[in-house]
Amino acid sequence: MISYLLLSIPTAVKMNGFACLPSFTASDFFFGGLAKPGLTNNSLGSVVTPANVMQIPGLNTLGVSMARIDFAPGGLNPPHTHPRASEILFLLSGQLDVGFITTANVLVTMTICEGQIFTFPKGLVHFQQNNGNVPAVAISGLNSQNPGVQVIAKSLFAATPPVSDNVLARAFQIDTQEVDEIKSKLAA
């Protein structure tokens, strides 16, 4: 009930960093973007279409969001984390290898098929990869209206300002030329 009451507070008031709506319509609670497949013709062969408070203002304070993930054959949703949410992934079609890494650096992984669900605990690094010969589509539910996402490789190798080549070279036990190569591939 509180979330609906907050919708009538003047716009100067913010909750969770988002302005409360002084008035609203049904469209503030609607988003049709998950109905359409995303384009997977990119270097990773996957695309995530989010449905969170940025697309649906009425989600503010409700503590939920969703996303659609489309995968080409071989497509990867690279290692990433959601700092503010746990995730439950429902596979609509295809087959995915999924996994997360515990805080004790243990990999928990399995292959899921159409109609199956896998969960990723809040804040843990996780991934999904389509190792099948046909496209795959998944829907994820997250227990935050703004779960955030931090893609590990981009966070380290495409930060602004950049992380020192020496730091990355020592951390990954590679030379600075390899660091520069990786950075050039991840540049916007």
UniProtKB/TrEMBL annotation:
Protein source organism: Vaccinium darrowii
Native organism taxonomy: Eukaryota, Viridiplantae, Streptophyta, Embryophyta, Tracheophyta
Protein name: Uncharacterized protein
